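Help wanted!
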Amino acid sequence: MNQKLNILILCLLLPGMSSAFKAGTYSVGLGYYSQNIMNKTAQKITGKSNFWGETSYPLNFKYDFAAFSDWFISPQLSHTFQPRESAGDATRITMTHLAFLFGKNFQGSDFDWYVGPGILQQEMKGKGGSTQLLNGSTPTTFYLPSRTVTTRKLSVNIGSSYLLWGSRLGLDLIFENAFSSEKRAQSLMLSYAYSFGGGAGGGRSGSGRSRSKGGMF
Amino acid sequence: MKIYSTLILGFFFSMNAYSFTLQGNSSNLKGWARGEVTFYVNTSNCPGSVDVVGLVKESLEVWNNTPTSSLKVKYGGSTTSTSSSSPPIVYCETNFNAITGADENSVPGAASVNTTGGQINSGFLVLNASGGQSNIANLSRKNLLIVMTHEIGHVLGLGHSQTANAVMYYTYSFKTELNLAQDDIDGISYLYPSDEFSDNEFAGCGHVQSVPPPTPGQMLLLILCLIMPLAVYFKTKKRFYLTHL
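Answered by r_m:
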């Protein structure tokens, strides 16, 4: 079921492909964030893993600054306003990711690529209470988490996006513990964002070489 | 001093799915006081055919691989102890039913922790070495690994999970592979959260008490971290001047 939903969302995103960096452009959109991908977590009762991980849907905000030549700097903020809920709604998990992306347009195309560091924060809010679960053959009371706990990780981000009709389709890989052989994990974010404002498609802002009409807003 | 002890038994029947739970008698459990837990193993009563030390080491690595947790677990060596202690111990029990109250024919392992003020202060893991059908000598290595990982999860402070994918689910009957589920990762991250801005970690390298010279990769990350805000600042400043000229 989850896999079908993933494919459906991917299909909905694909037709809206769009644009690369443009100085002074704002992008606002929705992301499909799959945490701990590439067979990192068990997805079936048998313990079998698959490519995808746990899913949440952050809202993304991005702004493009022109840096030098045709390089850009794009701070990007992602936040899940609708927290991921563990089964039974015992814990709500909110993800916030702030990335400082540094990238460049591919010559003569609407693709760009970018790389940069980020901060990935995950807040777990427990609801508290207790539940009865089997322990051997008899039910036992187990307590559910009640505290609010925050994890913060440095991330390394790499990605690419494509601009078409004033909106942007992005694919980001987010690495946690990138330099640790033990705890390294990778997450994937597919994003679709409306872009508005902005000027030059590459290099300096305000050059009057605008290719975007200002997006969907 | 309020001490609570819970015996968590393994496996075998069915239940609906939910999320991770905690050991002890309250929702306020915080795990072991230190995020580094060393396990000692007493192999004196263990079946000769079972490499208990190897299983413990392999299971500990599974818990070490959780990306958002600061937990570091390791094997410390052998011990002769058979009681709840700090650091925790793993041992085999021939009189499994009398010690745990569990059915020797269906439960291969059990674990217990003592808590004070929401913190675990001692614990142990006992393996079934009785004459029952669930003697660990009768289990495959794969199943033993799943059982060991599950029981170590209890010693670390996790209760049973309500999610069937999870290692902390009450039964291993359906499992053919050992992988933590996101629910297990959430649970262990809840008890031992990793915060690279406050703990002793450096750029995701684990627990590094004294910071060694950074590798080229770490240097690149640091340089990027420094350059990005500066570049943004100077660019914004330049625009400001251009606008006001």
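OP: Thanks! One thing I noticed: DSSP finds five helices and six strands in chain B.
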